[in-house]
């Protein structure tokens, strides 16, 4: 009889742990989304004009649409909570590694539609921006099979500008300063 109670208590503890884990992951994701949205709103507040638009995208290949007086930004957010190293292997393959000795091949999901997003505007400059939240250990792209280079926010890699959340916090001018 004691074994039955022990098993029931053990199953209860495991379920409790799983519920707490799921809630914590949800709160982390929700909190990070709020930080990103607040940052974008603060940046647009600095450049107050009636033309500023900030929209959350639903069922789109991008997460946010930002329009300023002179530019339009389609923003895709990659949530990199563990600050993995990120390398842009090709237009469609954005790999992340846990550490420098990591041989396992893992790619960031849901980037193909964003890369293929065809956006243009005759009156404003259009940018595709990938925001890595909160940061990345290193952000690299392959020049060829054996050469790597660091990605700078000003560089458009396959038509996409990459910047970390922490980098955007430091440099608000990246959005309107073009």
Please give a quick description of this structure.
By secondary structure, the protein is α/β, with parallel strands linked by helices. It is 34% helix and 29% strand. The longest helix is centred in the first third of the chain and has 45 residues, at 2-46.
Helix and strand layout, with pairings?
Elements: H1 2-46, E1 53-56, E2 64-67, E3 71-80, E4 85-88, E5 94-97, E6 106-107, H2 112-116, E7 125-134, E8 139-142, E9 148-150, E10 156-157, E11 160-164, H3 165-170, H4 173-176
Parallel strand pairs: 3-7, 4-8, 7-11
Antiparallel strand pairs: 1-2, 2-3, 4-5, 5-6, 8-9, 10-11
Major sheet size, sense and barrel closure: 6 strands, mixed
**What proportion of the residues is helical, as a percent range?**
25-40%
Mean pLDDT: 91
Tell me the radius of gyration.
20 Å
Primary descriptors:
single chain, 178 residues, alpha/beta, six-stranded mixed β-sheet, five-stranded mixed β-sheet, 11 strands, 34% helix
Structure notes:
With 178 residues, the protein is an alpha/beta fold. 34% of the residues lie in helices and 29% in strands. It contains four helices and eleven strands. The chain has a six-stranded mixed beta sheet with strand order 1-2-3-7-11-10. Strands 6-5-4-8-9 form a five-stranded mixed beta sheet, with no helix packed on it. It is globular. The chain starts with a helix and ends with a helix. The model has no long low-confidence stretch (mean pLDDT 91).
């Amino acid at each position: 009889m004691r074994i039955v109670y022990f098993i029931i208590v053990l199953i209860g503890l495991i379920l409790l742990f799983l519920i707490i884990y799921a809630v914590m992951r949800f709160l982390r994701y929700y909190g990070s989304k709020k930080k990103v949205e607040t940052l974008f709103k603060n940046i647009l507040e600095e450049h107050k004009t009636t033309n500023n638009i900030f929209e959350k995208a639903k069922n789109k290949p991008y997460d946010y649409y930002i329009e300023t007086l002179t530019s339009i930004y389609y923003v895709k957010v990659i949530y990199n909570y563990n600050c993995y190293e990120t390398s842009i292997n090709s237009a469609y393959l954005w790999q992340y590694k846990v550490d420098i000795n990591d041989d396992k091949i893992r790619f960031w999901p849901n980037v193909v539609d964003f890369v293929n997003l065809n956006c243009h505007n005759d009156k404003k400059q259009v940018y595709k921006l990938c925001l890595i939240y909160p940061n990345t250990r290193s952000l690299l792209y392959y020049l060829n099979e054996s050469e790597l280079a660091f990605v700078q926010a000003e560089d458009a890699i396959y038509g996409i500008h990459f910047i970390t959340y922490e980098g955007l916090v430091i440099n608000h001018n990246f959005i309107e300063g073009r």
